[in-house]
Amino acid sequence: MKRKQPVPSEAPTRTVEITVDGIRRDLLVEDRELLLDTLRERVGAKAPKAGCYAGDCGACTVELDGKIVKSCLQLTAAVDGAEVTTLAGLVDPGEELDPIQQAFWDNDAFQCGFCLSGFVFAARDLLARNPDPSEEEIREAMVGNYCRCTGYVNYVAGVREAAGRISPDRSTLGPQR
Amino acid sequence: MAPLNVEQAGPEADESVDLRRDGDVLLKGGGVYVDDVELPGTLHAAILRSPHPHAKIVSIDVAPALERPGVRCALSGAEALDLAAPLPHFFDPSIVGGKTAEFRVLAVDKVRWVGEPVAAVVAGSSADAEAALEAIEVVYEELPAAIEIDEALAEDAPVIFEEWGDNVLIDLPFAEGEADAELEKAPRTLTGEINLHRFQTAPMEPRGYLGHWQGHDRVTLYASTQNPHPLRTTLAGVLGLPETRVRVVAPRLGGGFGHKFNGYAEEPLVCILSKLSGAPVKWVETRADSLLIGAREYRHRFTIGFDDDGQVLAFRDRIWGNVGCLATWGGWSMTYPAGMTFPGPYRVKHYLVESMAVVTNKAPWNGARGYGKESACVALERMMDLIAAELGLDPAEVRRRNFIPAGEFPYWNSAKHLDSGNYEGALDQLLEMADYEEARERQREERADGKLVGVGLAFELTPEGGDFAGSYVRGFDTSTVRISPTGTATVLTGVTSPGTGNETSIAWLVARELGIDSAGVEVIQGDTDACPFGFGNFSSRSLSAGGGAAVLAARELRERIAKAAAVMLEREDPKDLIFAGGRIAGPDGDASIGFAEVCEEVFRRAYATPGIDEGRLEATHTDLPHNFQHIPDELGRMSAYPSFPYSAHLCVVEIDRELGLVDVRRYAYVDDCGTVISPRFVEGQVNGAIAMGLGGALWEQLPYDAAGQPLARHLKSYVTARAGDLPSFEAGRQVTPSPFTTLGTKGAGETGVGGAMASVTNAVNDALAPLGGHIHSLPLNGPNVLAAIAEAES
Amino acid sequence: MIRTPTRYHRPDSAAGVVEILAEHGADAAVLGGGTWLLPMMGRGERAHHHLVDLRGLGAESISRGEGTIELAATATYEDVLADAELCAAQPALAAMAAGVTGGRQLRNQATLVGSACHQTPSSEAPAMFAALHAEFRVVGPAGERWVDTDSFLLGALHTALAPEEFVAAARFPDTPRVGGYVKVKIAAGGWPVATAIATRPEAGGDTELVLGAVQEVPLRIGLGSALAEDGTVRAEEVEATVAAQVTEPWADLQGDAEYRRRIAGPVARRAVERLQGGAA
């Protein structure tokens, strides 16, 4: 059964201003809305994915004011004025991929691609702090993310190679494979 | 089934293959999965699910939901009876002699599992739709439930489908020779029981659908499905529409693994809801919904008869699968390969395997990578290790003594015509690559220090390409290649990709046949309006069947283009022209002409220039492995699987004696899936399969409490392998092509799940051996292993 | 997504927080990092029409007072890790913060005080607060009070907070304590099945041992005769001492009661060994 005119929603709303991938957006959002859903539904930024809505899988990872976070654990209302970077905002359109992205591609680090946002940001975060990570450190840096296709083997190789490309003088092992 | 007389199409040793297609798009976040598809005005559905494992629906009133904010419509099962015909089965058990039942889009009189869809609500946002569910009033009358196998088979068990009389869906025998008689005579026998638990594939992308009912009788469904064409056919029937008015689009898939085989109620349901509400309707499952689906829960009770040399003379294995409730999803059918895969790679002439699918009030199974073959692998590989332990032989040697020798292929055993293989070669290669001797030496030293270190071997035979005539699970597929006047090629194929990269390989193969750059080849999959009817992806057959068909189509076009090129080059014989580097040249290397130039000429001059006789550069072919036996041969033998890749695995574990935690220190494997088109993609598949097998064997589980409630509702309680849990895998390769497929491929995608489960189970048991302990019930998590240690020490 | 039509509040004063909590009682919830609360609301396990964000209070994440260190309710695990002095003074705390499940993202978002207020037995922060001898500044309509950890953590999902109260901060003595921290999970993605924190003041004194995730609330182990004269622990006696005191082991999907009972002793012993530099 149906009704022509739905009962109006009474969910409280507010306007917020969020900069997403360099573009400032003025948005009307519900107070209960998660940043993940704001990005995907209102801004059209589809790069972060919804895998669990519980902060377990990491597919929703974005950079928020310079820190990586799981956007499904973040109320948009709480981050008015914030700057968000998604996978789409790491390089300008038409530009080459950055070293981590390219190394992931060269090493066949991903398959279906659904988890990619989490892994790219985790790798960026790691290499910014630790330019020459060991395999153990790389694996440790990825534990917040979950991949079901790859068994992680090529992600690790990809990060090693990216490290070698970004900091060739500091990397002890250099590119693998 | 004679071997093919066709030029096989794999890459030469010095040829490289492409990077994964659209990798740059994915890396920039541009991949479009079903939840990324946007249609204006989309509404959102939520589904009310049964809170009881077994109950009558006494009454249901959805009207109150309409009073909730944002709600446009609400639907009960009774109302849906007029809107949707019964759902066809993905694979109806009655096709193979099993029992069956009818299912509707929403439960009407009864619910049979916690989570079964009972009603649906559509609202402007998912949040509002979810919130409105609690307004729906359902009165249930609870019925006794049967959750575990023993409960379902007990004398006084509640019968889940009353008309059946019991809870046995099907009992499938696979036998050769005289197992009972030979077991009687065997010098030695061993009995055992193995319990595999319920777990699932948990793809990253949850399943979802966006249904758009347009106008009077036209519907488009965007679906995270592995099988868009069969889904279209199903929808047409359920919705009462001509199939020409139904379109299914399968966008990029975030992992399939069988979880996204079609047959789900939500597929037609969102279409009906769209019709009712006059807008597109989207539904995406929550992770809790996703975790309802089950697989892999088997019990084996086996007896093996063998001699003092470790040769297996006969065996019996009685298998029960707790398939959960029956549904129109095809998961119950995994009990078929669970039995059929025996005796694996081993040459045993007397065996009786009986595989019973038992229905219970757990949520139904859907397909899960491995498809029952992993279960057979664990059982067989435990048997081999038990024999080795009994006789004091090296487990590798026991396997060698029992392998089907390389010279005996093709080889018949019950329900399988094995294509080709060199099992001993693969095992030997693994042992050398992984330095098995050294691993055992190291184990001796560490054992002397009191460490619980285990080395486990496993050999997995993985039948692929399954074809079940009478269903839409078929072994053939179709591809069209279409070449434009500017010399670019489009492949439209009935196979789809769950993210494995087959589109990249198909493009590469077609480009290679035509001698052009693969950048000039597009592959279109997943759209039923564009692609020829096909069966999608499952059983690792996409590249074999769809890629094979594309190659055959490309070859036909090459012949046609060669004729035109011969005319343009003023040459006699088109057959000796060479297509390479975007040009077509004579073998003597002198005159050549651009590929694109010839294509253009075909369209501009066909029927006007003598010799250019066809104005069409489009060809469609169907391909399949030529190794099926659908009708019993003179000896009564049948084979529904044509291709038999295999792999050998070695796993080294250390068990923390005080905590029972298993650390996988090393993992090595050798894989043979026949001809390999993209070594990297194949390796990626095996890596993922191993991670899935290890995670499943060690940590993942889907437990139910005694009241029939599923307990693992999120990924903190369904614990899969993370990067920190696993080592990197050492990979080796052997190539024994299939003589029966166009590409020589056998299929890569599932091998590794069983091998990993079996090798880690063997490794853990090997580690416990000095204590006199063993563990035959999975998962091998800390609590279970510690309990086994405690029992051994007491 | 969250189905309750909740209202987000971001008061700029403690009084403002209290006013909202007092008005709405259990229909209001305090938002720390949100890493517990938001997923539960998304699954419909909890419903609150008012969420009160403490970030509006503008509290400094970590501040130092008279011989104390104060963690604001909004202090994250990364805030702790970024404070080198704190990490050097409390290595067990640093170890815990570095390894919290969920990766760097979680460490950037989740709060220690929030974890204590949620009080899931398998969390790590509650036991760490116990080991640090922390007190919680509970603010309510009647004013402020300090509540020590043992009086604050009452049971599974149960603290001493009344619906109209909130925790503004936790503080603990700024006494450097050498520490050994051990955490057991069944796999990297799971939650702790047992944690053990062995600490001793750097300047000397008795070793203390706290177990987390083993029982409903953190368990302080009375070391009794296992304590040597010099304040160190006789590692070989730890297991028996602990076994006698684990009387109500917790059970969940990560591990049953029997498992926790069995491993509590060895985990505790390893924490002691890590502290004292033995085999771990």
Largest sheet of chain A: 5 strands, mixed
Strand order of the largest sheet of chain A: 2-1-5-3-4
Based on helices, strands and strand pairing, what is the structural class of chain A?
A: alpha+beta
Distance between the termini of chain A: 61 Å
Write down the secondary-structure element order of chain C: EHEHEEEHHHHHHEEHEEEEEEEHH
N→C terminal distance of chain C: 43 Å
**Helical/strand content category of chain C:** alpha+beta
Radius of gyration of chain C from CA coordinates: 19 Å
Strand runs of chain C, count: 14
- Quaternary structure: heterotrimer
CATH architecture classification name of the largest domain in chain A: Roll
Plain-language structure description:
The complex is a heterotrimer of chains A (177), B (794) and C (280). Chain A has helices at 35-43, 99-106, 116-129, 135-141, 153-166; strands at residues 13-20, 23-30, 61-64, 67-70, 83-85. Chain A has 177 residues and is of the alpha+beta class. Chain A has a five-stranded mixed β-sheet, sandwiched between helices. In chain A, helix 2 packs across helix 5 (153-166). By secondary structure, chain B is of the alpha+beta class. Chain B contains 19 helices and 30 strands. A seven-stranded mixed β-sheet of chain B has the order 3-5-1-12-9-10-11. Chain B has a five-stranded mixed β-sheet with strand order 7-15-14-13-8, with helices on both faces. Chain C has a five-stranded antiparallel β-sheet with strand order 4-5-10-6-7. Classes of the chains: A alpha+beta (177), B alpha+beta (794), C alpha+beta (280). Chains A and B meet through helix 2, helix 3, helix 4 and helix 5 of A and helix 1, strand 3 and helix 17 of B.
Write a concise keyword list for the protein shown above.
heterotrimer; A: 177 residues; alpha+beta; Ubiquitin-like (UB roll); DNA polymerase, domain 1; 2 domains; 5-stranded mixed beta sheet; 5 helices; 5 strands; elongated; B: 794 residues; 7-stranded mixed beta sheet; 19 helices
Question: What's this entry about, in short?
Answer:
The complex is a heterotrimer of chains A (177), B (794) and C (280). By secondary structure, chain A is an alpha+beta fold.
